[in-house]
Amino acid sequence: xxxxxxxxxxxxxxxxxxxxxxxxxxxxxxxxxxxxxxxxxxxxxxxxxxxxxxxxxxxxxxxxxxxxxxxxxxxxxxxxxxxxxxxxxxxxxxxxxxxxxxxxxxxxxxxxxxxxxxxxxxxxxxxxxxxxxxxxxxxxxxxxxxxxxxxxxxxxxxxxxxxxxxxxxxxxxxxxxxxxxxxxxxxxxxxxxxxxxxxxxxxxxxxxxxxxxxxxxxxxxxxxxxxxxxxxxxxxxxxxxxxxxxxxxxx
Length: 251
Prior knowledge:
This protein is of the alpha+beta class. It has a single domain (4-247), classed as Hypothetical Protein Pfu-838710-001. It is built from 8 helices and 11 strands. Strands 2-7-6-5-4-8-9-11 form an 8-stranded antiparallel β-barrel, surrounded by 5 helices. The chain is globular, with a radius of gyration of 18 Å. The termini are close together.
């Protein structure tokens, strides 16, 4: 398989400062999943249409996220039941830029994603102080109800459309850790298109050409399903059938 880093070096770069000027914190999200063996072909196909985020000559960036939920997985259950106005709560460390944020993502009743965050000095395993006040303001729930549930690790390439309001993130080498379980999902690629409004972009056109459909599942919910045995997950059965198919694909 062609080296991913070599392909990313063929993209024109965009700096972190330029990216932050167009963060698309309020957007429509569209997710795709496919086998890592297809990634070189897809990257080559869109290399002229997107910039790639470059931080100190690094274009594939390490991410670490710690997700929080209530003891009875209230947020997970709301997502599984496709409830609108649902939330995800997490700390995220952007390792290459040495930045940490406490983040809250909302999916509202118009299927619009709104992400709010505050910068933090360190990634904490509890929600306290400024983060606690931020959580109470955003979702009107006591922070003491929230416990750390799962770590999610991956490398991400961030692409920015040269001609339209769109970012594309592609996550590789995905893994989950919770208590004594660690699950690696190396064959799986998760690509997420983030747009201010829905339109057919070079990447979404490419996915359509290759008959790759969008499916709604978050990395948090996927990780909970994989690392927790005694939790209801029937509504995600279709997602895991497609994920298992991706794991077994040969190209």
